[in-house]
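assembly run, all chains below
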Amino acid sequence: MAGIPASAGLNAPVIASKPLEWLKANLFSSWLNTALTLVVFYIIARTLMGFVPWGIVNAVWIGTADECKAVKGVGACWAFFPEKWRFILFATYPYDEQWRPALSCAIFLFLYGFSAMRRNWNSNLFYVWGGGLAAIAILMWGGVLGLSYVSNERWGGLVLTLILATFGIALAFPLAILLALGRRSDMPAIKTLCIAFIELVRGVPLISVLFMASVMFPLFLPEGITIDKLLRAQVGIILFAAAYLAEVVRAGLQALPKGQYEAADALGLSYWQAMRMIILPQALRLVIPPTVNTFIGLFKDTSLVLIIGLLDILNAAKTAAADPLWRGYGPEVYFGVSLLYFVFCFAMSKYSQKVETEFNRHKHR
Amino acid sequence: MSANVAAAQDSGQPIIKLSKLNKWYGDFHVLKNIDFEVYKGQKIVVCGPSGSGKSTMIRCINRLEEHQQGSLVVDGIELTNDLKNIEAIRREVGMVFQHFNLFPHLTVLENLTLAPIWVRKVPKAEAEETAMHFLKRVRIPEQANKYPGQLSGGQQQRVAIARSLCMKPKIMLFDEPTSALDPEMVKEVLDTMVELAREGMTMICVTHEMGFAKAVADAVVFMDKGEIVEANEPHAFFANPQNERTKLFLSQILNH
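ok done. output:
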């Protein structure tokens, strides 16, 4: 109980009609509570005292590399971002063509926003996504409509992160459902196969999956056949996420009362009809929190493509920070990129909470 | 042990025929050589102490449980592992569960129309019309657009009965339909079942509602330890039980 009121005190609620009484009731109700409140306030104050002079007061917001050097150690160099933002966001994509990945990112954001609205959940959604992804492919690759061709070796930055995460989530999820159903199947061959896949993939680090996809897999291919590095990394991420998600989905399947399966059977629904209309809609609602947990994890894990030399946003930022003129601004770079990751992950989290409340409305009167 | 119910109104083939049916859960012999026939339009009440295998027996009839020995023929179709046969039989056999098992994420109307639309391929409008017809019959048409969680237990069970009826089944199985209900709601569900019985539905009910048995049953079957111990028409069954186990059971449930 004690920690919660203290943090609530950070944004003093305007609704409390008598602030002093509110403080007393929530922060200083007992000796223990009072002590904890003071400790928390002390920690917050110390953190701010450290951050504010460095991050705000002495910081260089816009300026040259030399101006930044002058305040090194006492002030942050936020000027790094106005200088390097194009490399961070677009990496090695040809400089004059960077409006194309920028527009692609915008299309991604539009697709997310569009799909988030419940009234758009109908068959049109597929066409919108199909159109959006086609437009992104045309923009990114080019070679048609007067756009110059850009090999995907040169893709990087935010758009790469969004591509890896979007396709990762969109394809891993259905695969995970199939794996979870397979693991619960009565057919021994399918069941064994699904268990083997899940346990094998889940049991190794993503880095090694990516490394194998990148380095070892090509060795097994016949000569002359190459599969694109980006595609291999994408497939690696999809398979890895699917193995994790499969267990999340299975938890939902197992949490449903047996009566739901029996009622569907007794009505004569086929296996796939029962799964599609009765079992999965309920099972997946039950596991929204751990599912989003996995999505968020996957979103951040895309940065591990560093191991095979792809420049997603985090690695693009790190590369930008290696510029000899602008060296030594690691804290600023990580702080800035973390903020961007946080915005995406927090949006996912908030949205999932909203969906959860809406979906579970039928449970309450 | 055989329960050749005498009162066959219909001299044709039985609509349900269990012969030498055996089932084990691991080492536990839950159904022992069950011989049992039901003719079209008959209402059978199955009773017995808990663990006697009565639920298991009726759950074999629509293959929610699998038997290991013997034969089971429903509506002229032998139940085997053939999925086609199982699905064909389930289309003709409705089931009402102790815990209702309505689909909580769908409205009452959606609960009722789902199977007719997807299994019987009935057009949506027609399925909704049928659904409203049966909701009126169980006297809760005004609840059509609510979710099951918003209804009382008795209302939920009546929805469950209506849901089964929407599939226009030839046979209805009831697995302790009133056991999970608060006492004041038992009557509304039993009334619905009595009405259904009067309309000539073939019914097998696992229940301890002996009033219901007296009112509508053509035969009462008593099971104990996986066997059919005694079967008789209700008047004789209650007035003059033959077997010691039946007598003991009746004395336990009737004298409290």
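Residues 1-9 of chain A have pLDDT under 50 and may be disordered.

Chain A touches chain B at residues 257, 259-260, 262-263, 265-270, 273, 277-278, 281-282, 285, 359, 362-365 (CB under 8 Å).

not gonna interpret more than that til we talk
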